[in-house]
Amino acid sequence: MLAHQLPALPAVDHVLDRVRDLLRWIDEPAAPLRIARALPAYQAGPLETTIAPRGGFYWGGGQRLEVVRFAGANLLMIEFTYNGKYRLVEPYSLRRRGTGNLLLYGWEQGATSIKAFDTAKIRDVAVTNMPFTPRYQVEFTGL
Fold it and tell me: Are the C-beta atoms of residues 70 and 127 closer than 8 Å to each other?
């Protein structure tokens, strides 16, 4: 019913698990919520900012970054082509470098650390219906 409005829907079980965690305080006031770690220490330049662009396309880049933002906020993996290679990634953050490059920080399936992807090199980005458990704080939801 919502397929025409949303790029993908998370699995119902995944959403219910998240809701149960959020509402656990009602029955168990002292139970801690599962909180993801913050992103690793990052040496930001003086002009670097964290952003989560609103709108269908990032101006000047032509990438569909709204679907990346949607996927991150809903803990869904994204897939795209980067430097000619297929990638399956957990999206965590969009940050602009002082050089003007817009970077997507995400954990690629099979990787051993978080990676930065230059959004100018990302092609055919799409949201999958595969949920992920965050390894770091997802910065798309704080804006």
Answer: yes
The residue ranges of every structural domain in the chain are 47-131
Residues 95-111 have a mean pLDDT of 88
Amino acid letter, residue 53: P
Task: For residue range 22-37, list pLDDT tens digits in order.
Answer: 666 566 655 444 545 5
Compute the distance between CA of residue 83 and CA of residue 79 in angstroms, rounded to an integer.
13
Residue 40: pLDDT above 70?
no
Instruction: With a cut of 70, say whether residue 106 has pLDDT above it.
Output: yes
Question: What SS3 string covers the chain?
Answer: CCCCCCCCCCCHHHHHHHHHHHHHHHHCCCCCCCCCECCCCCCCCCCCEEECCCCCCCCCCCCCHHHHHHHHHCCEEEEEEECCEEEEEEEEEEEECCCCCEEEEEEECCCCCCEEEEHHHEEEEEEEEEECCCCECCCCCCC
Domain covering 47-131: architecture:
Roll (2.30)
Cα 34 to Cα 25: distance, rounded to the nearest angstrom: 12
